[in-house]
Amino acid sequence: MGLTGEQIARLFRTFGPLIFQRALRLLGHREDAEEATQEVFVRVLRAADDYDDREKMHHWVYRITTRYCLNQIRDRKRRSALMQQHGPRAASLVTRRSPSAMMTLRALLAMAPEDQAQAAVHVLLDGMSRSDAAEEMGISRRKVGRLLDDFRAFADRHAGTAEERAS
Amino acid sequence: MSGFDWAALEERGPDCPAEFDLERLHLGLGEPAQRSALQAHVDGCEDCAAHMARLGAGFDIAPEVDERALLAGVRRRMDEAPRRAPWWRWLLLPALAAAGFAVWSLRPAPPVETVPDGPRFKGGLAMTVHRQVGLRSEQMVSGDRFAPGDRLRLVIDLPLPGRVAVWGLEAGGAVYRAWPFESPWVELPAGRKQALPEALELDDALGREVLGLVFCPGDRAEPTCEAADGLVCAAGCEVVRFELDKR
Predict the structure, then answer these.
(1) Hey, is the C-beta of A152 within 8 angstroms of any chain B C-beta?
(2) Which of A3, B28, B46, B225 would disulfide-bridge A7, Cβ 3.0–4.6 Å?
(3) Which among A28, A29, A14 has a CA at the least distance from the CA of B27?
(4) Which residues of chain A have a CB within 8 Å of the CB of B136?
């Protein structure tokens, strides 16, 4: 990667907290967010080709953090651990959302088809416009709309099961 | 059935900027006019102002977090990144090949496998990988170049009914189950060109990665793998490998 220790530390001071807070919102548990911070940051350094381009670096941070956390939520073994670790106090540091609703949502993100889950995170959690989510996912805006409709229908249909898994 | 409580997820108003945009504002990114407009919104929005304050606090929002320990962990992970093989490895290869041949030539005759009941067809285990590009897909060959985020569809041929899973070996040596997502394996009938449901999406770890279709005939063995200087899978199972060059 060709970075000095000081450069790595400087990049980490800039982007590390963004990764941590985002991971904490998505995963709901501090230790998982700390693990995610380290893993995602290393992946960002490997993926980026210009560390001085803060626009691109930020984009990598957002993209890789989202995918990493979604994979953690969807991974079967990790999911059972996440479901047991409520961590509402830690998550409440970065979000005002109801901890129980977030637990249920994590269960739904794990159960739903992958592309629906990804669209749901971008739009329903991150507040992205459908156009921005479409660009992020490399699909059309209309397709994002369909995925969201499908996810909402899926969530309404499976909310009971998801709540049971989350409790 | 009451459905999901969507209102419980609402954190900021419908006119509020996305978290991504607030992060950009925090980092000082974007055109001055964009930043001014965002800042004006934040100044008049309690929820977004609270979000910006959290971003400004960095790691301090969680007093238990030790930034130095996290950075040390980052450095440790970077040091663990692909190590170069020692130069003398190449001297070992001919010796290992000769030893392997000697062992192979002296091996006992293999036991006769009892074949599970069920339909059979001529042909062997196979896996083709198709990359989705827009609404169409293109068939790839092992060793092809891929990119993070690529979505792959797998189509397999099974000579017998049995248990199937797909495992991955990352460049860094980590092994993970790539498919199925919700169960350790799936039981499938014998047959050609069986498209596995759900697409795999490649993550952002770069380097040469291996996908292994693991097939265990019948119901005796479980198609699991572990990392042991490569992708090593359960006895009694066959593996078909496909290499991805992720850049």
Answers:
(1) yes
(2) A3
(3) A14
(4) none
pLDDT of A64-75, one tens digit each?
999 999 999 887
Nearest-Cα distance to chain A for B71, in Å, is 7
Residue carrying the six token digits 């409520």: A86
Q: Which of A37, A79, A164 best tests the B interface by mutation, with the highest count of B CBs <10 A? A: A37
Q: Which residue has the tokens 């001071």?
A: A13
This complex has an ipTM of: 0.89
pLDDT at residue B111 greater than cutoff 90: no
- What is the Cα–Cα distance from A110 to A158, expressed in whole angstroms? 12
Residue in the block written with tokens 């459908």: A130
Ordered by start, the domain boundaries in chain A are 1-96, 99-167
Are residues B19 and A127, on separate chains, in Cβ contact within 8 Å? yes
Fold adopted by A1-96: Rna Polymerase Sigma Factor; Chain: A (1.10.1740)
Cα A97-A98-A101 angle, rounded to 5 deg: 110
Those residues with Cβ within 8 angstroms of residue A93's Cβ, 6 or more apart along the chain or in another chain: A24, B54, B61, B62
